[in-house]
Amino acid sequence: MVSKGRPERPPVFGASSVPNSLFGEILDWMLAPLLLLWPISIAATHHVANDIANEPYDQALAENVGAITRLLQIEGGKVTISLPTQARAILHADEQDELYYQVRDSQGTLLAGDDLLPAPSGDNEPALSEVRFRDERLSGDPVRVAYKVHELEPGQRWVVIQVAETRHKREALASRIISGVLLPQFAIIPLAVVLVWLGLSRGLRPLSRLRERIATRRPGDLSPIDILRAPEELQPMVRSFNELMERLEENLQAQQRFIADAAHQMKTPVTGLRTQAELALRENDPAQLRDAVLQIARAAERAGHLITQLLTLARAESSHEKLHRLVKVDLNDLARDVASEWVETAQAKRIDLGFEGEDARLIIDGVPLLLRELLKNLLDNAIKYTPSGGRVTIRVIADDRATLEVEDNGIGIADEDRERVFERFYRVLGTDADGSGLGLAICREIAEHHRATITASAARDGIGIRVVVEFPRSGAPQG
């Protein structure tokens, strides 16, 4: 069942890679090692407990081997062992375990004891006068064996002595050790989980306080959060949040300025339309009425052009991902296509429109719609401010960067105005051509979106203006 108060959190080892809860994520990563280490701790404790349990009983077995060694004798050239009745009873009587002993000569012949004990072999080869230990199974029961080689006559006669004991006492002692170590862990681990939970709850309180401070803000409050009041680990996030708020405030201010400027600019054509319409209503002369309607049509055309440019500027400034999705664009083909679309417009004004491109493809990362708007605005400006009989040239140049040029031999721009022409609604004084002052501002917005630079300078022959847009080639690192 899913709790209504909080979203489901993926389990510790779940398939989801997106954490829904920072608290749960930290808790998982703190408890997961504990849960993984606990079985390792149990195995290690079991191993250590067996070693501890073996130590005293191994010593007793080694003493039994020594006792049998002292009882060995050579009588009439034969090895004999004389076990007193009391010693024999000790070797075969125990409340919990059974003991076995065995003595074999160098040929493997059983001299005394139990024949059931296997002879040591392989890695368990006995050493001279050194008691060694190994684990065996005897009649299905695990046993611990102590054994050594005893030399009866230097370099001639020796025997192998073995004493074995079942492991019941050892296992009982190991179980007590394991219980003594692990039982407290069953109380310590839940207590540790509770303490970790409480510690995390307290440690994450600054996040809750920060959330409350943001939640209680007024809707229009974009002021920065005091970084010094945030914990050190949260300061980078708060700093990034403040930068985001600063950018958002700049965007809002830009939108407000844009709306104010757009409203101001729209007053002129709307006022002109109303004035021309009022004049037309008072006219009785058909010729004068036709002129008035013609003026209304021209004013409507200018208003439509202004609205189109305002929408283009809004689109260029938009941060919507779908509008700004970059694709591979051949700048050479795009410029040739746009130039062909403007041939008729240039011919109507008797302007020679030329195109100078590259033979090979020139690929950039861009938005085709915006790039077309950029080139259209550059051509519109060039044709508009070039007198009849002039020329406009579009060039595409492949170098370290992809360069797009639009050059004309028109009226040109004074040096002091070449930077300001890219400002919104700025128009050079002394020109008779209709314009809104938005064309080059739109071009700059589009160029900045494509990480390109746009500049205006005198034409190559000194007559007219040349606008140069330099794009980074496709795949070039971003600056």
SSE map:
Layout: H1 22-70, E1 72-75, E2 78-81, H2 85-92, E3 99-105, E4 110-113, E5 132-138, E6 141-153, E7 157-166, H3 168-203, H4 205-215, H5 235-282, H6 286-317, E8 327-330, H7 331-341, H8 343-348, E9 352-356, E10 363-366, H9 368-384, E11 391-398, E12 401-408, H10 439-449, E13 453-458, E14 465-472
Parallel strand pairs: 9-11
Antiparallel strand pairs: 1-2, 3-4, 3-7, 5-6, 6-7, 8-10, 11-12, 12-14, 13-14
Helix pairs in contact: 1-3, 5-6, 6-10, 7-9, 9-10
Descriptive report:
This protein is of the alpha+beta class. The chain has 3 domains: 199 residues, no CATH class; 83 residues, Helix Hairpins (Orthogonal Bundle), CATH 1.10.287; 151 residues, Histidine kinase-like ATPase, C-terminal domain (Heat Shock Protein 90), CATH 3.30.565. 48% of the residues lie in helices and 19% in strands. It is built from 10 helices and 14 strands. The strands form 4 sheets. It has a 5-stranded antiparallel sheet with strand order 4-3-7-6-5, with helices on one face. A 5-stranded mixed sheet has the order 9-11-12-14-13. A hairpin with a 2-residue loop joins β11 and β12. α7 crosses α9. The longest helix is centred in the N-terminal third of the chain and has 49 residues. The radius of gyration is 49 Å and the shape is elongated. It starts with 21 loop residues before the first helix and ends in a 7-residue tail after the last strand. The N terminus is likely disordered.
Distance linking N and C termini: 51 Å
Outline the biggest β-sheet: 5 strands, antiparallel
Q: What value does the average pLDDT take?
A: 78
Q: Over all CA atoms, what is the radius of gyration?
A: 49 Å
Outline the low-pLDDT stretches. Answer: 1-16
Shape: elongated
| Proportion in helices | 40-55%
Percent strand = 15-25%
> Secondary-structure element order, as H and E?
HEEHEEEEEHHHHEHHEEHEEHEE
Strand tally: 14
- State the domain count: 3
Question: Which structural category fits the helices and strands?
Answer: alpha+beta
Count of helical regions: 10
